[in-house]
Fold these 3 entries.
Entry 1:
Amino acid sequence: MDSIVVKGGSELRGQIHIAGAKNAALTLMPATLLSEEPLTLTNAPRLSDIATMTQLLQSLGAEITSMQDGKVQVMSTHGEINTTADYEIVRKMRASNLVLGPLLAREGHAIVSLPGGCAIGARPMDIHTDGLEKMGASIELKDGYLHAKAAGGKLKGAVIDFPFASVGATENIMMAATLAKGTTVINNAAREPEIVDLATCLRSMGAQIEGDGTSTITVQGVDRLGAATHPVVTDRIELGTYMLAPVFCGGEVECLGGRMDLVSSFVEKLDAAGVDVTETKAGLKVKRRGDRPKAVDVTTEPFPGFPTDLQAQMMAMLCLAEGTSVLEEKIFENRFMHAPELVRMGADIDVQGGTATVTGVAGLKGAPVMATDLRASVSLILAGLAAEGETVVNRVYHLDRGYEHVEEKLGAVGAKIERVQGS
Ligand code: UD1
């Protein structure tokens, strides 16, 4: 397995191009199942999670052509399709569950494997299935698979009140509702930019959706959806990650394609921590004001709150801050696995349940560390940028799920970073 070796201490200067959002692409791709006509995505990220979704959609009968080195994906699903999403593919990635709504809407039935355990928490699917049941589906769990059937072969509109603003459930129900009979209202819907991006794409395909970006989304079902070409929104998590890079080791980095509205709660915390973020014509420019960042308290929340997917990276930064910070993780119950790895690099972190208290230290020291999940891995690379000596991040397959060419992007702005091929 590959590892990434980082030698700390180099200032970073230059521009980093931010890719299209992984989490948007992973919901836009299954939307192709809703139409017999082609859906073309531009600005797609080049990631192993995208390859997994491609494999899953192909197993269902989609034809997918990847162009421009993977940046353009042309997908079409015409004629007969397979409605069983196999465990062997689904187990690799939770977002595979996003085929459930589209398959059910198109064919009136679907069999989708439950994704199984995930390192960062239990992540059940009850909000998805309760919503689909309200739309007239009967759903049974047999041998690890959800067997779903729409009464009379077609889903019908319903008013659905989510107990929690789940991103995936909002996406699944929104997609299912586009072809349902009648109107669906989702109350307490997630407001993430990826939801807005999906709604925008579905509208281009002919769907009638209002309210995306607010807590109430209304979808009026239509008989069919057509072809569309859609550019994937900028990845706000990759953006936030690279915005932090110059805070670790000094310098100034411009993140091309970055938009303030995608990261406003994060920028507020950066400002409080003594980091300047300025809008430029091409994106966002970031520079640390003093020699060290300052402590800030952070609580993760659904959008527009501070994203859980930037919590690990923020924790790594706060390890070097002046003062003590309290980080509260409110979205996932087990998302501090990077903490013991950061402690191995000299950080002072005390984790009690969903709360981590981080007392900043003047410097970190390089060490061999283990990547435990996607965002944890990148937090260790960031910490390595500031650490004295060499940090070896092992098990980087997690990283490749969500960050394209990380060593090239950071290397181009001056980081001493390389990938070592494993056996
Ligand atoms: C998506 C993102 C992930 C991000 C998360 C929260 C994708 C592919 N992934 O994941 O990167 O960290 O949003 O911003 O877009 N829950 C239930 N029952 C359900 C569904 C969710 O209890 O049916 C719980 C989960 O266990 C978790 C919380 O709700 O504690 C948030 O989950 P959700 O918003 O659904 O996240 P995902 O869509 O899985």
Entry 2:
Amino acid sequence: MLVLGIETTCDETAAAVVERLPDGSGKILSNIVRSQTEEHAAFGGVVPEIAARAHVEMLDGLVERAMKDAGTGFAQLSGVAAAAGPGLIGGVIVGLTTAKAIAMVHDTPLIAVNHLEAHALTPRLTCALAFPYLLFLASGGHTQIVAVIGVGQYVRLGTTVDDAMGEAFDKVAKMLGLPYPGGPEVERAARGGDPARFALPRPMLGRPDANFSLSGLKTAVRNEAARLDPMEPQDISDLCASFQAAVLESTADRLSVGVRLFHERFGPPRALVAAGGVAANQAIRGALQDVAAKAQTTMIIPPPALCTDNGAMIAWAGAERLALGMIDSLDAAPRARWLLDENAKAPAKFANTRAGF
Ligand code: KG4
Ligand code: ZN
């Protein structure tokens, strides 16, 4: 089964062709990602209108290249999948409309994929993981602990009550004068820094729920930065290292509660999985390894290029759904907001503008 996947929900334009074999395993035949970093860098963040226009300009060429690299034609496709949300609506419309046009012209099924579901199912593409498993999803717009029970079956066990983790990395980078996108820059700066120099808060430590909070930590970084102003490069490195250490400790604590909640409701997870852009962070990977070892489960983190946004994850989620007959009609709507767990309720103190997307 060959599926073309299209991703345009944020600032990456991406297209990929993935093959799903009869035994349920997957193979990436092509995976092309074009990041719009340059277009947005001058503004210090993603500008939705610029993103949508760049998707329009780039997408057709990327789809053509993905098909060519995969050595296949539209007639050979079993389906075409696009991320139909959640995300910046202009970009989502571009990707979904393109997928609909291909589906209509080539009379092939359309799969309107939830971008978060695509992150959640990626470890089944990279290492044929069986259900159920515990997912730590941390990206620019989301920070969640999710029980992945099956395709389309997700139970949210924890979420952020304010900022998303990637968003906190990006904001800390911005306040320290590091370039956009901030996550990888903070990680790089932290490598040469002293994580013990600043006593930053460890948000939510010891709480019985599995929720996260990052805005207080971000404010603490801002206060230290203001106190030090003007900052030397070593100050920036030390502050990044201290921030990252606080994130790691809080994440490890929140995840160990998540593992316990998973056990109580679903028995032992097959693995602890991390996905989303923040999972590309090597230090976070180390912290997760410790949590998994304590929980006597395996840790699985897809390679960094499959943690950040890409087309292969959309194609794979499309293939998983297609294999179960879960296809969509050509009037499938683009969605700015789309919860992975439709039954999840907003936690108290939910104040984030990005977290619902
Ligand atoms: O999943 P993703 O590519 O896009 C969204 O769906 O949001 O995640 C992007 C986010 C950004 O906030 C970025 O700063 C963060 O992931 N990120 C990182 C790292 N690489 C990307 N955060 C910390 N360390 C990294 N190495
Ligand atoms: Zn993402």
Entry 3:
Amino acid sequence: MRNCEPAGVPDAARYGSVVMKFGGSSVADADAVIRLAGLVGRQAEAQSEDDKPPVVVVSALSGVTDRLIAIAHLAEEGEVDHAVASLRELLERHVTVASGVTTGANQSKALAEVREEFESLIGLVHALAVLREVSPRSLDAVVASGELASSRIVARALAERGIPAAWIDARIVLVTDAEHTGASPDMVATCERAREHIGPAAARGQVTVLGGFIGATASGVTTTLGRGGSDYSGAIVGACLGVGEIQIWTDVDGMLTADPRIVPQPRVVPQLSFAEASELAYFGAKVLHPSTILPAVAKNIPVRILNSRRPESLGTLITAEAQSPDGQLTAIACKRNVTVVDITSTRMLMAHGFLRRLFEVFERFKTAVDVVTTSEVSVSVTVDDTRRLEAIVDNLRSFADVECEPEMAIVSAVGENLRADPTLFGRAVTSLDRIPLRLVSQAASRRNITFVLRDADVPQAMMRLHGQFFEQTPVNHEDTK
Ligand code: ASP
Ligand code: MG
């Protein structure tokens, strides 16, 4: 097997610690929490004597954040009974999980903590229902309970299994600005706090457990980092501590070479660069939002996506720089149902300032364009969000001829190798033989080739590309028709 560790990536053992971030599905119920404890225990055992124990960052139990947001809205509508009944159901779910993963003193502590968290939340929801107003600040206070409760349970579950664990209130570690529901960390302050609060516990040999997604302003007001923000928390804490690796434990095997709903047997991408991951996410690969791991990647800390149900699978390793084996691409992705807009200058040649005027129109209507190709007299762009397309077209028509073609799609082949190996471009185009390609573009990064084609041709195009680059035997075009 090829060596997946590129040069320059620090060895986990050198820094002696790992951040293990568990998503909502990895704490969904008692069985999931027991699996989690097993994984943390194994990681702690695998480390050498001088290594620091892992730092665990957890999401709320799956679905809980959505429920808490719905509860806040019920309060806003004055539906206090309904809101409280929902909270009691959530409390019961947490009680069931906590009882399923602890016994004796651990259990009484876990249950007391969970109850206390929910009792204060019920008080808050009553107050919100009286005010009939839920500001972003109040919403953060409500949803934070999800991660506070899950992390309490996980800390007790670890202790139950003889793993020395310390729960840390993430709000004293993650110092953020006051942009409620989408706060940004103050890295200097956060790193100081991380060393101050996590450091001593780690030195005592304790696994530290923090809720992801949540933080607080310098004056102590609870904030959240935006939906899906637990990955971000993991990366921030990992970057601050300079850990050797950040593990993102989820319910899939890693990033795939293609969307399994389109290509029947995609493979797991063993390793990819941060830039490749960003390109893929842009085209809808959902495993993780690459910008959330930026703090880690910027510090050259590898991020590994792993499946908590199948820990033996190798997962996907994301590093600052990485390269697939020669002659290979990294993955393919697609964005379906986009509209192509062809804009032709009404003068023979593109007048000076044409492009600026054109893009100003898209900008004015806050519509992003994905692919852009230009010729001497015309520009073609693709748009995904067509809500303001009519107005855009009206405006463009004041200085250009405009035609729209709906039901198109973007198929993108991504790979760092595209830069160095010009034959890959040819192979990709050849594999799409006889599929009408509306636009073909390769951006300056030369990390992807993008095809715009009819949405109906997407399955065929994806399977051919996948066959060409990811399957042993090249796909016979006749067979796939
Ligand atoms: N629980 C939060 C959410 O669902 C954060 C996370 O899970 O990453 O958005
Ligand atoms: Mg979640």
